[in-house]
Amino acid sequence: MPELVKKCPECGGASLSWNRDRGEIICRDCGLVIEEKMVDFSQEWREFDSEDGEKRRRSGAPMTYTQYDQGLGTEVGQKADLLRLGGKDRNKFFRLRKWQYRISTAIERNLKLALAELKRVSSYLKLPKSVEEESARIYTLAVQRGLVRGRSMESVVAGALYAACRRHDVPRTLDELSEASGIEKKEVGRTYRFVTRELGITILPSNPADYIARFASALKLSAETQSKSIEILEQAQKAELTSGRGPTGIAAAALYVSALMHGEKRTQREVADVAGVTEVTIRNRYKELLDELDLESEIKKTKKKKKR
DNA sequence: AAGACGAAAGTGGTTGA
DNA sequence: TCAACAACTTTCGTCTT
């Protein structure tokens, strides 16, 4: 589903570079930032976060989890070392080497494969490096706890990625994960839930605002429309319109409304497609927005008349 | 003719007994 | 484990532009 940008909308240049860490796509010709993840919106209040202080590990050792040995490989001995060792040490050397071999086989072999798959999916979805790291970490933990048993490696990878996306506020929908990984949507969701539960990872409900930038860009909407829709979202959250609803539906509706306001009309179908929901859902959310918020007057500016 | 709207029935997942 | 339930989807008919 992800509509990939191939050309710069500004100058038409085709040489785009992608900064993984910042999640931006930049035109090398005119410097336009075509797509970027919007600035952090401080974590939104939600009503059901009853989980008590699950400690969040924000920081950790400076290792990388995207390599199966976490970038800290231990090579037991090189030939060169061998020459310098005496008899006793030499035996020790062989013992250690054998050990190393034994340990590494099972888990690490699995990790090696899984992380390759993880990287593939991650780059397909153009996920920032930080998310890739996080999901690799999650996967590693999952393997160590034997959670992969009975599940396909790929589905656990997908679940880990999904979880990592959510934690980093760069949500991808289950549909996208499913498409990228070739795992059924149901299955991705299932393993996602299983893994997060087993590992005790708390995940905040995703915030509709996190989807706005991506959807807006796919629809080629202006920046004003984008920020307007974020305003709308904030109001909606105050009016308690958002809890329990699918975040993508709400984001889509907000975007739809603000597009109307700015005379950048998109059909419900177009918006529905990029958001991965149906028109009906947009209509429902849209109606709720109109009922609850005083948006009608603003829409009138671009429309001649409006009844009701 | 296409888009917007709404009703009705169906689906998959969560929750609570 | 099962039933009730909410959110969302699918489908389809009608109205609006």
Reconstruct the topology from this structure.
Layout: E1 16-19, E2 24-27, E3 33-35, H1 79-84, H2 87-124, H3 129-144, H4 153-167, H5 174-181, H6 185-199, H7 209-219, H8 223-238, H9 247-261, H10 268-275, H11 279-292, H12 296-300
Helix pairs in contact: 2-3, 2-4, 3-4, 4-5, 4-6, 7-8, 7-9, 7-10, 8-9, 9-10, 9-11, 10-11
The structure holds a DNA duplex (17 and 17 nucleotides).
Could you explain how this protein is built, in words?
- It is a single chain.
- It contains 12 helices and 3 strands; from the N terminus they run βββαααααααααααα.
- It has 308 residues and is mainly alpha-helical.
- Helix 9 packs across helix 11.
- It has 4 domains: 1-52, N-terminal domain of TfIIb, CATH 2.20.25; 68-104, no CATH class; 118-199, Cyclin-like (Cyclin A, domain 1), CATH 1.10.472; 208-307, Cyclin-like (Cyclin A, domain 1).
- Strand 1 (16-19) and strand 2 (24-27) form a beta hairpin.
- Mean pLDDT is 73; it is low at 35-62 and 304-308.
- It has helices at residues 79-84, 87-124, 129-144, 153-167, 174-181, 185-199, 209-219, 223-238, 247-261, 268-275, 279-292, 296-300; strands at residues 16-19, 24-27, 33-35.
- The relative contact order is 0.09.
- The radius of gyration is 24 Å and the shape is elongated.
- The structure holds a DNA duplex (17 and 17 nucleotides).
CATH homologous superfamily annotation of the largest domain: Cyclin-like
Secondary structural class: mainly alpha
In whole angstroms, how far apart are the ends?
A: 37 Å
CATH class of the largest domain equals: Mainly Alpha
Named CATH topology of the largest domain: Cyclin A, domain 1
Query: What's the pLDDT, averaged over the residues?
Result: 73
Report the β-strand fraction as a percent range.
under 5%
Instruction: Kindly report the spatial arrangement of strands forming the biggest sheet.
Output: 1-2-3
Total helices: the number is: 12
Largest sheet: 3 strands, antiparallel
Domains, number: 4
Shape annotation: elongated
Q: What's the quaternary structure here?
A: single chain
Low-confidence stretches: 35-62, 304-308
Number of strands: 3
The CATH architecture assignment of the largest domain turns out to be: Orthogonal Bundle
Q: SSE string, helix = H, strand = E? A: EEEHHHHHHHHHHHH
Radius of gyration (CA) equals: 24 Å
- Helical content class: 40-55%
